[in-house]
Write a structure and sequence with these properties.
2 domains; five-stranded antiparallel beta sheet; about 20% strand; alpha+beta
Length: about 290
């Protein structure tokens, strides 16, 4: 190595390529958005959604769930094609208005690093939506949290349907007739559900604090019969999710650390889940 080479870092060892997947929401309009990216390195491959669900909700409102289902369908089809054929040459989209973009060679520390490059250079909406500043009074996190709670109860159908009646319980904590809703109550265990939405972390944190306060109030209430175990189950994307910027990952870590500090001060447990299925399995284990 000459002296000039020593001034530059070594090239990443993982080589591969990536391709964007575009959706034309109105077929024939020519308007396209990036919905997924495909990363390939040697015999390894990965297909991930490149536009986050909270952004779909902003763009399409009540139709966001349908768009999300379409994207999931396309990604499953791509995965099946790569698993069975090893290439995308003969792939046909299960829905109209979808096409795969040109292949770009890349290097990275791993395939997730290659996917991050793909998102950076092909999915501007995803990155911009995460780093955009939003007001703290945004009500969207509350809506997302309600959806998160429904998703957990739906996942429980296949895990332990006998626990379904324990979701969404309401308790009268004070002398007034007001009832406080809790995510799950069964025997000596109760849990509330919170969600850290990457694009709305400040408002998300406020929503989680409210859930913790309800648990604290329940714990300190004068009720004769009440649970002995209190927990808040926090939903968040994987910290290795390629769609997250390093700035977003740091914010999620910092917010989760703060939640743990607040909860542990009141002897309330904290559990982080990356999917509704993981959360439902955890609940089932707690009450087994």
């Amino acid at each position: 190595m000459n002296s000039l080479d020593s001034l530059f870092p070594a090239l990443p060892e993982t080589t591969g390529c990536w391709r964007p997947v575009y959706l034309e929401p109105i077929v024939g309009s020519g308007e396209k958005i990036s919905i997924a990216v495909i990363g390939v390195s040697g015999k390894s491959y990965k297909v991930i959604q490149s536009v986050r669900n909270e952004l779909l909700d902003c763009l399409y409102g009540k139709q966001a769930e349908n768009i999300s289902s379409m994207i999931t369908w396309v990604i499953e089809s791509l995965n099946n094609q790569l698993r069975l054929k090893g290439s995308l040459e003969e792939w046909e989209s299960p829905i109209t208005g979808v096409e795969i973009g040109a292949e770009t060679t890349a290097r990275g520390s791993n395939i997730d690093d290659i996917l991050r490059q793909a998102i950076r250079f092909s999915a501007s909406l995803s990155t911009l939506s995460l780093d955009a500043e939003r007001s703290d009074d945004d009500e969207q996190p509350k809506k997302y949290t309600e959806h998160w709670a429904r998703s957990i109860s739906t996942a429980m159908v296949d895990i332990n349907p006998q626990l379904l009646s324990s979701f969404g319980k309401k308790v009268q904590l004070g002398e007034t007739n007001l009832l406080t809703s809790f995510g799950f109550i069964y025997g000596e265990y109760t849990a509330n559900f919170g969600l850290l939405v990457p694009s709305r972390l400040s408002a998300s944190l406020n929503n989680v604090k409210a859930k913790l306060l309800d648990l604290e109030t329940f714990k300190k209430s004068s009720l004769g019969v009440k649970p002995n175990s209190y927990e808040v189950i926090i939903g968040s994307p994987s910290l290795k999710d390629p769609t997250l910027t390093s700035k977003s990952v740091k914010k999620i870590r910092d917010n989760f650390t703060l939640i743990e500090e607040i909860a542990h001060a009141e002897n309330i447990n904290v559990y982080r889940a990356e999917s509704a299925e993981e959360a439902a399995n955890h609940i089932n284990e707690q009450v087994a």
